[in-house]
Specification:
alpha+beta, HIT family, subunit A, five-stranded antiparallel sheet, 5 strands, globular, binds adenosine monophosphate
């Protein structure tokens, strides 16, 4: 068994986080180190998929749910417009290998992720 990911531990209530979205299978939280005025994370509660490519292949409905949740969060937090980022691979900046979407907004610069 591999170690649980930080997002699994947040979903299990073992690590505190500021929740902004929750459904049966998806959790949304504020990023602990925001890189934009609005920087939220969305991820499946279960760590079945390491990245968005695996998620798209394995459970496209869950990926669609993440995207719908991103729009809902953008409507609530950034006036409906947002940047959706899935870092995929360590060289692309991925540090947590449990698929997650960064929802960024509220005055973005080119350097926001
Ligand atoms: P990535 O670099 O794309 O894998 O994104 C991982 C993100 O998770 C980073 O933006 C981190 O700031 C964020 N992060 C890591 N640990 C926590 C935590 N305990 N609570 C909220 N966000 C976190």
């Amino acid at each position: 068994m591999s170690e649980p990911t930080v997002f699994e531990r947040i979903a299990a209530g073992e690590i505190p986080a500021t929740k902004v979205f929750e459904s049966d299978r998806v959790l949304g939280i504020r990023d602990i180190a925001p890189k934009a005025p609005v920087h939220l994370l969305l991820f499946p509660k279960a760590a079945d998929y390491a990245n968005v490519t695996e998620l798209a292949a394995g459970d496209p409905a869950l990926l669609a749910e993440l995207v719908a949740a991103a729009q809902q969060l953008a409507d609530e937090h950034t006036g409906g417009q947002y940047r959706l980022v899935f870092n995929t691979g360590a060289e692309a900046g991925q540090t947590v290998f449990h698929v997650h979407a960064h929802v960024l907004g509220g005055g973005l610069t080119e350097a926001s992720l």
